[in-house]
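Researcher: I'd like a candidate sequence for this fold, 148 residues long. If you have to choose between options at a position, lean toward the conservative one.
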């Protein structure tokens, strides 16, 4: 009987150790903030969310000012999309994961969650930000991401 009790205790200890490792290794939701240099009205900056995930879900996005924001699957997609006008939707397979336009500072909950990825498997997520306001400003973007 004591062998059964010892085996059960050993299994429980291993299960608890694995559960602790999983909790320590996974960060279910992480907040990433990026900031542009000062942008004149109607000018853009190409930025990267660094040390993020190669596959992710976007839970929310926040800006501190009026902005047009586009998130891409890779740097090439961001470059190819550079000359698209704000009033045109991206073409199919353009590599745009998420795009939104705000008229002022805003916090945007994303529902349902939008899944994204980087084509290279890197942990850099390309983001283009255009100042849609009327004055020079550094635009701060905050994304809440879920690692997939």
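Model: Candidate sequence:
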């Amino acid at each position: 009987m004591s062998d059964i009790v010892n085996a059960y205790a050993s299994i429980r200890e291993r299960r608890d150790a694995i559960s602790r490792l999983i909790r320590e290794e996974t960060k279910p939701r992480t907040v990433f903030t990026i900031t542009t240099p000062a942008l004149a009205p109607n000018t853009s900056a190409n930025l990267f969310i660094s040390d993020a995930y190669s596959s992710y879900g976007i839970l929310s996005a926040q800006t501190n000012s009026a902005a047009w924001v586009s998130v891409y699957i890779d740097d090439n997609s961001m470059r190819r999309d550079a000359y698209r006008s704000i009033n045109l939707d991206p073409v199919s397979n353009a590599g745009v994961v998420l795009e939104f336009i705000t008229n002022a500072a805003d916090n945007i909950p994303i529902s349902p969650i939008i899944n994204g990825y980087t084509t290279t498997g890197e942990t850099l997520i390309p983001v283009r930000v255009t100042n849609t306001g009327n004055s020079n400003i550094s635009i701060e973007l905050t994304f809440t991401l879920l690692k997939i």
